[in-house]
Amino acid sequence: MKKITVLSGKGGVGKSSIAASLAVLLAEKHKIVCADCDVDASNLALVFGLREKDFDEWKKISTNEKARLDEGKCNGCKKCVESCYFNAIKWNEEKKQPIFDEFSCEGCGACEITCPEKAISLVQVENAKIGYGKTKYGFTVVSGQLEMGESGSGKVVAEVRKLAEEKGKGAEIMVIDAAAGIGCPVIASVVGSDFVIGVTEPTPSGLSDLKRALQMTRHFGIECGIVINKHDLNPEMSKTIEKFAEENSMPVLAKIGYDKNFVNALVNLVPIIEYNPKIRPVFEEILQKLPTGKK
Do residue 159 and residue 254 come from a single domain? Predict the structure, then answer.
């Protein structure tokens, strides 16, 4: 199964809209599956018209641990308080015992190691949920949602991809919609991909963040291409992005002009190529440059 990941250095550049339209076009000639790996703010399914209640199944998962105290064993030495890098352990002067803040605890285990009385242990917590649903376009989309205040998004992404592999058994292509940025969930989305599409806008911050994202991608030796969205809003900056692409031997897969229909399509919960079929040739141009096997 070939894996094509769509990412962006910053949010708001149209990454999910572009990923959704590419998926719809790919599904016309290939068996595909989609993985929404932006688990902090998953919305790819919405672009296909799938709401949370429309999913076939949701299940709670655990990819993180939290520290728990056995008060009967605690001798009040305060070593756990001193060892906590995240300041998740406070001291209760009245009880002469530590208090653990679950929202601040990262489950690193330092307190468990330093406790001389073995009064602290790490326990699994349900910090996310993953699910899947069938779109009207004939393919399955898998999503994950990290619970508010929880950590471990990179591991949740790994679980989303694992479920996508399972539900997309026999598929030729997996389309992965990564989170914005260069953090753990993005790295977990990119690793093992066959091709990465970097979506950007013609702004200084758009280019700066794209450079960082593609630097991370090239670290893993993955072939990259660039899509410049809203390119006509700043032609000079678009030329700068094209120059960057040329200097780094990256193809510009397409330049998409500013189009209010992108917003209208999102409001109506459909991919842009369905809402505005006139834009279809732009996405077909992108597909012609992707390593998807048969055209």
Answer: yes
